[in-house]
Design brief:
This is MerR family transcriptional regulator/heat shock protein HspR. One of its GO terms (molecular function) is DNA-binding transcription factor activity. There is one protein chain. With about 150 residues, this protein is mainly α. About 55% of the residues lie in helices and about 5% in strands. It is built from 5 helices and 3 strands; from the N terminus they run αβααββαα. A 3-stranded antiparallel beta sheet has the order 1-3-2. It is elongated, with a radius of gyration of 29 Å. The termini are far apart.
Length: about 150
């Protein structure tokens, strides 16, 4: 990695390639702690073909956060698991909101584009008389009997 920063948008951030000994060293923990966190569901490493655990840089960041919450803030592991789960839900919700906002912006742009093409710019796509309360009923013409 030649000293370059790996950000959360980088695929290398998510790649499950670190052996447990390397991930433990990077997180400043004993490998047995990582095994316990895996059993508790706090961190879900990938598995190598032989069954060994493989961690990503994202997992190491999460391991450090688990350690900070439990040691510095005094939160028990059940509480840490709940916090991590809620943070994941929040992240998913924020991503969904961002997608929906982008879709809404695109829809507004499309409406503006269609309005600019309309015969009456700045008005409804179909001109209406808003002061009228008349009801118009359309009946198709009857075809003459043959």
């Amino acid at each position: 990695m030649s000293g370059e920063f790996i950000g959360s948008g980088d695929p290398a951030y998510e790649a499950k390639v670190l052996m447990i000994s390397v991930a433990a060293r990077m997180a400043g923990m004993h490998p047995q702690t990582l095994r316990q966190y895996d059993r508790l569901g706090l961190v879900q490493p990938g598995r190598a073909a032989g069954g060994g655990r493989r961690y990503s840089v994202r997992d190491v960041v999460l391991l450090r956060e688990v350690q900070r919450l439990s040691q510095d803030d005094g939160i028990n592991l059940a509480g840490v698991k709940r916090i991590i789960g809620l943070e994941r839900l929040l992240e998913q919700a924020q991503q969904r909101v961002a997608r929906l906002e982008a879709e809404l912006d695109a829809a507004y742009r499309r409406v503006a584009e269609l309005e600019s093409l309309a015969r009456f710019p700045g008005r409804d796509l179909v001109p209406t008389n808003r002061t009228s309360t008349a009801l118009v009923v359309w009946r198709p013409r009857r075809m003459p009997d043959r």
